[in-house]
Amino acid sequence: MHTIRYFLGRLCGAVPTLFAIITITFFLVRVAPGGPFDQEQTLPPEVVANLNAAYGLDQPVWIQYARYLRGLAHFDFGPSFRYKDFTVTELIAQGLPVSFTLGALAISLALVGGVAIGTFAALRHRRAADHVSMVIAAVGIAIPSFVLLPALGLFFGIYLHWLPVAGWDEGSVADLVLPVIALCLPPLAYISRLTRGSMLEVLGSPYIRTAMAKGLPLGTIVFRHALRPALVPVASYLAPAVAMVMTGSLVVETIAGLPGIGRYLVQGALNRDYTLVLGMVIVYSSLLIFMGLVADILIAILDPRVRLEA
Amino acid sequence: MSEHGLWRTALRRLCANPAALIALAAILGLTALAILGPTLNPNRYDTLDWANIAMPPGLRHAHWLGTDRLGRDLFVRTMQGTRLSLAIGLIATAVSLAVGIAYGAAAGYLGGRVDHLMMRVIEILSGLPLIFFVIFLTVVFGRNIYLLFLAIGAISWLNMARIVRGQAMVIRGREFIEAAIASGAGSARIIFRHVVPNVVGPVIDYATLTVPQIILFESFLSFLGLGVQEPRASLGTLIAQGAAEMESAPWMLLVPGTVLAVLLISFNLLGDALRDSLDVKKS
Question: Model pTM?
Fold first, then answer.
């Protein structure tokens, strides 16, 4: 009950934060020089004036802002300025399932794999397995996804013919394997290092030594007693990990030719597609804020000493 | 443990760590190569050598590490790119240090309502996807890379501020701060003379980890076509070009990719080693 009240309280607290983000973004994109209808061929001024009038860009900025907010209140992100005949809602609704599947798979794999490797390394502290996994983790952090994905594609796609190099065949699983691996490796490496560090600290604490002295089996000690407190730093890393996967998905989707929403952020900013950029920022920011909230609740569940105070 | 002793212990621990020494040597070596390298080779980064297009690496011609599609020397371009990436990493880290320390120390030391408000600002900023901010800034500033460094630094101070704030809150309760207040020092003086010098440990550690993050971020932007512009090169643009030619000319990806990976691994190892050696709990 207390957790639910806290959750709702924080959710309400996120509204002003999101509002501030929307406001900042709304005015920032309009400060940028150029407009959505600047193209290589210069359009006749009458055409530009008509376009501006059609999209309401001839109005003062405050009126545009008020209109945009009114639309948002009805979950209407407005029309895209560059993708004619599409609303931003439609564009995001088309791409989001792909991006969400990709991101969710990458985060899950990073969490499960990172915790497993980190725990294993901690149990083999200062032995070969520990050193090997930490070197792999260091490499995982240092190899950017835009190097890893082409390299994986070259090896598994072109030499071995096991998996498609790129493309999207109506959501076949094989298309997602390499992008998910490339996307999950950096957060996986971070999480395994975090887990190793905290697990080492927990394994050295007196209550674990007591459990060992009692002769409890190692599995029980690790899973029943040590894992829970050791996961606290991992939980607090959740939001940064999601941000990392989001940023990575911008390039991974492009390289792998996946029809997600990643491309809209960069293209939208370059094309001054104001509504599309705003829509993307709203989607990403909401997700980030929400993950921060989930992380705080997870920490409180994992560590009973933490009190949730709205 | 006295301050003097802390640093001496840290230095001794660092020297006893072979991985850290190798990492430090790799960073210094690459820096020296990046600065001096282009003078060792007769080619320039933007000279087109039409007689030697997409040459594989070899010592028989003047292009030690091969050339790209336009016959530009890959060694010189990679070294020039390394120099740019290092410069970006260092400048942006310095900016993020300056802003983060001042902001975090002020919030942590002043506390109360001011702290609450300042942390709220950080919360809003960290809700924004940073990549959007940088994309936007490149759009506004045009393609001026020096402003881009500043911009990346100016938005990557959030974590630094959080770390410093946490430290400053601990330090605030210590006796020497009380003594400073009692002797009539103002808040600004206390923050810069007494709080900031005492948060140096975690700050150095985090700064060492910030440099590779920013180098990675820059190469990411250049990969998206938002960073350094032709004919100048950064590791990111070189990797982007190399990835496109991966099947026919793998060295174009391998040369800059290896340099980037070595640089990033070294900074990360050094940062970890610094964290271990500055850890007061371990003695």
Answer: 0.79
